């Protein structure tokens, strides 16, 4: 099979096209003939060596394709061995593409309990873009964040996969959604997905500007922070509000004033990925509400994985970037 393989850690250029032996199914594992694989920032960290993935390695957590044994159209759940505790993953939990070969390939071998039916209305590219970001965002908003219909949500960032998914899911569930961005075009794109407006985070006082857009100008019930701007995010919350943190792309550390935090009665909630139960909840929400399909910005051929990573890191995209495993690279 064809795959994008890295034999060292580094920049996008470490991803090279290669031929690997086909994986085979067994009692505990299914083999999926992939039609598309979506990129995530997590893949960039794997490529750089942050997770010390064994080399040579095939990255990739997201995929959609055909189960080679049953012929069914399926999604791959990228959270492996979550365990029985819904509050947090088990000690041996891992993300597909960390320690074992991932989805930047024509085929991938995964545990059978990580195979779910593909929603029939989605294209292959849209289906591949759903699992990791959809699962992560669903858990952040509803399992951890306890978001309910009628509540208000501020999403930090408007163009990434988490942000676009958050706007789509929260709006469909009846929340009032506002976003932040440094680009008017990305705010406009978020409004097309259901956001009620946005503010520019590259301008002074953006947190106050966001609060002015919240119901009764009181602040938001929930702020979703996938970038690491905790102090500004807390400033946008109403008293008693919840801040859900699921990323650190803009900052690896945060300093908070202690007294305002506890006098504000805030909840600070960390989260990542999710359980099979969360994934069931995501698929059920999509089936019961009018949720737009995942936003796909561009589809690259599998052989151009390095170019896809360069585009991902440029920050120019709106939505998900996908690798197509078919020769022409379109799905």
Automatic annotation (TrEMBL):
Pfam families: ADH_N (PF08240), ADH_zinc_N (PF00107)
Domain (Enoyl reductase (ER)): residue spans on this chain: 10-323
GO molecular function terms attached to this record: oxidoreductase activity
InterPro entries (alphabetical): ADH-like_C, ADH-like_N, ER, GroES-like_sf, NAD(P)-bd_dom_sf, Zinc_ADH-like
UniProt protein name: NADPH:quinone reductase
Species per Swiss-Prot/TrEMBL record: Amycolatopsis saalfeldensis
